[in-house]
Specification:
With 184 residues, the chain is of the alpha+beta class. It has helices spanning 32-38, 74-80, 105-113, 115-123, 126-137, 142-159, 165-183; strands spanning 10-15, 17-18, 26-30, 45-50, 54-59, 61-64, 67-71, 87-94.
Length: 184
Amino acid sequence: MEGSMDSEIFEFEAPLGIADSDLFQYYIPVPENISEALITPESKRVICQVEGKLEYQAALISIGQGNYVILLNKERRTKLGLVLGEIVGVRVWRDTSELGMKMSDEFAEVMNQESEALEIFEKLTPGKKRTLIYWSDNVKSSEIKIRRAMVMARHLIETKGAVDFKLLNIQIKHANAVAKRRSM
C-alpha cells in the first residue's frame, strides 16, 4: 500500500452506518478527535485498515457539523461480511502518498507513452487525477485498463485538460463497443 505508516496510527471501533444519500451509502463514523488529528489543510486522505484484514486508501468525508466518515463500498463490505450496525474495528493513519491512491502500471505506461497527455494530467487537481485513475483501474483486465487509459489520454489532449466526465464516459463506452465488435 502506498503512503507511509510514519504518521501516528489511530485505532477505534464504530458501528457501520448507512447514509440517506444518493452519493454514498455505507460508512464508518470517525471519532472527532481522530478526524481532527488526521485532517490537514492539504489533505483529508487516509489509509484505513478494517477488521485487521482489509487495507485501502480513502478520504475522510464531511457529513456536516464537524463529523467525518470513511466510506465502505459493497465489495469491501461483502468481503468482510459486515452488516449495518455491526461494530467495526478500524486502524487509520494519514496517507502520505502523492495521489492518495495507487496508479496501475497500465495507466502509468499509457501516460508515459503519451507525453502531451501526461503533461496535462500532471496539471490536474488531485481529485481529478484520482477520478481518472479510478475509472481506468477499477477493472481486473489489463487489456481494459489499457484501453480506458488510452481513451483518457486522447480525451485529455482533445479537451486540453478540461475534463468532461460525461463525454469521457461516452468515449469509454464507444471504445468498449469497438473492441467488442473486433473480437467477434
